[in-house]
Amino acid sequence: MEVKTSLLDNMIGVGDMVLLEPLSEDSFIENLRKRFDHNEIYTYIGSVVISMNPYRSLPIFTPEKVEEYRNRNFYELSPHIYALADEAYRSLRDQDKDQCILITGESGAGKTEASKLVMSYVAAVCGKGQEVNKVKEQLLQSNPVLEAFGNAKTVRNDNSSRFGKYMDIEFDFKGDPLGGVISNYLLEKSRVVKQPRGERNFHVFYQLLSGASDDTLKKLKLDRDFSKYNYLSLDSAVVNGLDDAANFRTVRNAMQIVGFMEDEVQSVLELVAAVLKLGDIEFKPESRCNGTDESRIKDKNDLKEMCELLGIEQSVLERAFSYRTVEARLEKVSTTLNVAQAYYARDALAKNLYSRLFSWLVTRINESIKAQTKARHKVMGVLDIYGFEIFEDNSFEQFIINYCNEKLQQIFIELTLREEQEEYVREGIEWTNIEYFNNAIICDLIENHQNGILAMLDEECLRPGTVTDETFLDKLNTICAEHQHFESRLSKNSKFLTDHSLPHNCFRIQHYAGKVLYRAEGFVDKNNDLLYRDLSQAMYKANHSLIKQLFPEGNPAKVNLKRPPTAGFQFRASVGTLMKNLQTKNPNYIRCIKPNDKKASHIFTDSLVCHQVRYLGLMENVRVRRAGYAFRQAYEPCLERYKMLCKRTWPHWRGPAREGVEVLMADLPVPAEEFSYGRSKIFIRNPRTLFFLEERRRQCLQDLATLIQKIYRGWKCRSHFLLLKKSQIVVAAWYRRYAQEKKYQKIKSATTVVQSYTRGWQARKLLRELKYQKRCEEAVTTISAFWHGTQARRELRTLKEEARRKHAVAVIWAYWQGLKVRREYRKFFRANAGKKIYDFTIQRIMQKYFLGLKSTMPSVSPIDKSWPANPYRFLDGVHTELRRIFHLWRCKKYRSQFTEEKKAVYEEKLEASEIFKDKKALYPSSVSQPFKGDYLEISKNPKYQKLHSAVDEKVLLADVVNKINRANGKGTARIFLLTKKSVVLADQKTGQVKASVPLPDLASVSVSTQSDGFFALRLKEGSASAVKGDFLLSSDHLIEIITKLHRTGATAADSEQLDIDISDEFLLQFKHDKVCVKFIQGAPKNGNSVSCKRKNNRLLEVSVPTTA
């Protein structure tokens, strides 16, 4: 029987704040502290999850935990983020309700990690399958890419999201993911050009410089030294626990999984490098003759490298940094930029370039992860957005972020109340109106279309004349002075005139989270977010494909004189769209809290947590939840938990669960006004009532445990006694048997001993007789042996003496003969005797060497690599030179036998070796195959007579190839003809010419490195043959076709050298689309044949069987 636990079992503190008694801010924070100290980082407020950032890894996110919370009731186990994720997923799958998970909290509270945990849990519990796993992997791998480009290290968080992200994950009717759509909000692009002290720029800059290979950095014209780039802060360039090099590899792998092609990844890296280079461009002042100041670039090397990366003419960008053109109707005015304006233009370009690149990345990821089917989908939204921010210096970014949090707080209160009211109506419980603070008045102060702060800021930005931050603040002081949530030193409200904590150039807003002081400086510029038209047009002139997409307004043919919408207007519109989207879904809330500012584990700062509890409105949320009934539970689990409190329901209740609960509650001393019966749940008004039930249950469980122990101990003692009694009988029986067996063994042993002694005496007597007889025989043999040995030794001594005498005579004779020879020798040789002997010895050795070489000479075949070993070390040089001369001689002799045709064939084979050797796996198998050229015998075959007459030139090669269909990857048979001037493709059955491509129109030929027969004819852009796009063909004679194409192109007078591109991934132009052809190795299928399959609109995948 499965044992189920409950939220109320083994509880540390209170797992659900709704049950906290007494309820106060101090008791609320003390409960959080107690649970945090015991590693309980999750706490409920009804269906809301409070998440405390532990700043360390905890063993509560394992696969076992996922299975533990899978398909379990929300309150069945201890609080966990998995419980909320499971509840949302099952509501979406089983009840067909669209869900949204709202994750809020300030920077460093763990919002990004919470969103990852939700997505990983949903990915783990939903269906399996190749396509489903691919979609899940793409959705999960989109996170590292967006984190690299959108997250940065701040003083509060080492991986702070500097943009808002909302992801809609789409599911089918079974609950399997189909895809997703990501929306991003307000990237903090000002961080690109300037970071506060102790903070870093976006991660991708440091990851690129730390993790890219030296080759990649050289192509991007970058150096690993962070100090060489003005846009990178140095005081926090290296972060403890953050491996930028490993993260860069993770991002590259994630981009590949999501679906980025290699050229797209390279383009993105080039733009990142360009932003870094842009920050190193510096300006110097220069006076003109008319007295005006203008700016000039100090060192043009960085500008040159940036222009080379982006494909922009250096003079065009240099002019855009020096001049500004203003158009008004039919009039153009060009003015020079001073140094300050030039730096402003440079930074504006860097911010726009990076923010537009980020938006393009989000769009590109959406293209890859979007659902392919158009049927209705179920949707789960995950919102990970910046939390409420209160810094020492708050500017436009903090104002916009806090406005977004005001809207989220408003929808949180509305949806919480609506959910509570809907449950009461659904259960038939009377609804009680709840008093709460409505922050709509603060939202109206900011977003009102007439008198709102954003509307006045837009009005100032669009107003002609001098517009500054001071004029904007004056307007606020005039219009918002009487608003109860707006404060300023210059407003008409006299109570702030002596408030020295409120500077003159600032204003203060009373948000739901507390008062925030905003510095008006920079509001107008950041809201305008202007990029000079000259810079947009310069960017559009770039040869870089991605740059043109990012700056469409730079197209001279589409000049728009209308002022672009302001940043505030765009953000207000996007927040409005987000709120409408959230209101259509069932909300689930995760409130993230950080326990301390030191990013350290085991530290709980009461004041910081209290501040977050206040601005997140958690106490208000508890009061809203407790305003009606503090606790509610379905009848079945309620009866199962408390049935032991009533004799009529214990141990089993046979009727309906509701009747059992009614009988149970009637038997308990609980006032009737403390609970109500709904249609499917019982509602308990006061937590004290619940704790009373829990205390009674605990006492009953103790009594039951005592009864069970008593019965068990009695049964155990009786069983033990019966076992002892049975054992005694068995032991006695075995002992008697053992005693008789032992007595028998003694008698048997004594008999055996007597027998053995008798037999031993008889055996020893016989042995003595045998030994005496043997000793007599051995004595005779020994005496005979000694006698024969004596005789042999005497004979040996005689023979040795005779041999020594003979040897002495021979030695004396040899010495006498040597003496005579030496005397004769001295007469004929004197001083040069040594040299003559040396020369004679060398001559004899050389003679012996050449005679030996003659007898061991190898064959005259040029491929025979054998050669006799060198017997003399001083002849090494001669030996090597003779081997080389012999090889040259036999090669010359072998070549003299060639005819002109055979020589041409070998020249083609040699050229094929230069092109494909060690580059193409198919090449070794083609070496032994002769190049035939005309495989179809087109001039003799009457079937191709019409085709032969249609071709004027001599046919160098004729073969049947397969033309690959770009729509489905299947092949169609075509006749391939190669002449000295063109390539012809004709129908195999009719012989009709389908395409004729002049050789000068061929740009290059692409093949893979593997053992397939695929090759692509890539045509020059703009040529007449390139209208339908490039050709992808396959042939059994690939090596011969490419070799003849290369030779023919090289010998033609009017064509350039044909490029051969050998790569496993290349791009082809099919009409208006570029398609990537990718070769992969796969398991053998369909008889080990190569298969081509179209994966998506941009990818043809060729699977080549793995060779053994």
UniProtKB/TrEMBL annotation:
<feature type="domain" description="TH1">
    <location>
        <begin position="920"/>
        <end position="1106"/>
    </location>
</feature>
<protein>
    <recommendedName>
        <fullName>Unconventional myosin-Ib</fullName>
    </recommendedName>
</protein>
<keyword id="KW-1017">Isopeptide bond</keyword>
<dbReference type="GO" id="GO:0000146">
    <property type="term" value="F:microfilament motor activity"/>
</dbReference>
<keyword id="KW-0597">Phosphoprotein</keyword>
<dbReference type="InterPro" id="IPR036961">
    <property type="entry name" value="Kinesin_motor_dom_sf"/>
</dbReference>
<dbReference type="GO" id="GO:0005903">
    <property type="term" value="C:brush border"/>
</dbReference>
<dbReference type="Pfam" id="PF00612">
    <property type="entry name" value="IQ"/>
</dbReference>
<feature type="region of interest" description="Actin-binding">
    <location>
        <begin position="575"/>
        <end position="597"/>
    </location>
</feature>
<dbReference type="InterPro" id="IPR010926">
    <property type="entry name" value="Myosin_TH1"/>
</dbReference>
<dbReference type="GO" id="GO:0005938">
    <property type="term" value="C:cell cortex"/>
</dbReference>
<dbReference type="GO" id="GO:0005516">
    <property type="term" value="F:calmodulin binding"/>
</dbReference>
<dbReference type="GO" id="GO:0051015">
    <property type="term" value="F:actin filament binding"/>
</dbReference>
<keyword id="KW-0505">Motor protein</keyword>
<keyword id="KW-0518">Myosin</keyword>
<dbReference type="Pfam" id="PF00063">
    <property type="entry name" value="Myosin_head"/>
</dbReference>
<dbReference type="InterPro" id="IPR036072">
    <property type="entry name" value="MYSc_Myo1"/>
</dbReference>
<comment type="function">
    <text>Motor protein that may participate in process critical to neuronal development and function such as cell migration, neurite outgrowth and vesicular transport.</text>
</comment>
<dbReference type="GO" id="GO:0005886">
    <property type="term" value="C:plasma membrane"/>
</dbReference>
<dbReference type="GO" id="GO:0006897">
    <property type="term" value="P:endocytosis"/>
</dbReference>
<dbReference type="InterPro" id="IPR001609">
    <property type="entry name" value="Myosin_head_motor_dom-like"/>
</dbReference>
<keyword id="KW-0067">ATP-binding</keyword>
<feature type="domain" description="Myosin motor">
    <location>
        <begin position="12"/>
        <end position="698"/>
    </location>
</feature>
<keyword id="KW-0832">Ubl conjugation</keyword>
<keyword id="KW-0547">Nucleotide-binding</keyword>
<keyword id="KW-0677">Repeat</keyword>
<comment type="similarity">
    <text>Belongs to the TRAFAC class myosin-kinesin ATPase superfamily. Myosin family.</text>
</comment>
<dbReference type="GO" id="GO:0005902">
    <property type="term" value="C:microvillus"/>
</dbReference>
<dbReference type="GO" id="GO:0030048">
    <property type="term" value="P:actin filament-based movement"/>
</dbReference>
<dbReference type="GO" id="GO:0016459">
    <property type="term" value="C:myosin complex"/>
</dbReference>
<keyword id="KW-0112">Calmodulin-binding</keyword>
<dbReference type="GO" id="GO:0007015">
    <property type="term" value="P:actin filament organization"/>
</dbReference>
<dbReference type="InterPro" id="IPR027417">
    <property type="entry name" value="P-loop_NTPase"/>
</dbReference>
<dbReference type="Pfam" id="PF06017">
    <property type="entry name" value="Myosin_TH1"/>
</dbReference>
<feature type="binding site">
    <location>
        <begin position="105"/>
        <end position="112"/>
    </location>
    <ligand>
        <name>ATP</name>
    </ligand>
</feature>
<dbReference type="InterPro" id="IPR000048">
    <property type="entry name" value="IQ_motif_EF-hand-BS"/>
</dbReference>
<dbReference type="GO" id="GO:0005524">
    <property type="term" value="F:ATP binding"/>
</dbReference>
<keyword id="KW-0009">Actin-binding</keyword>
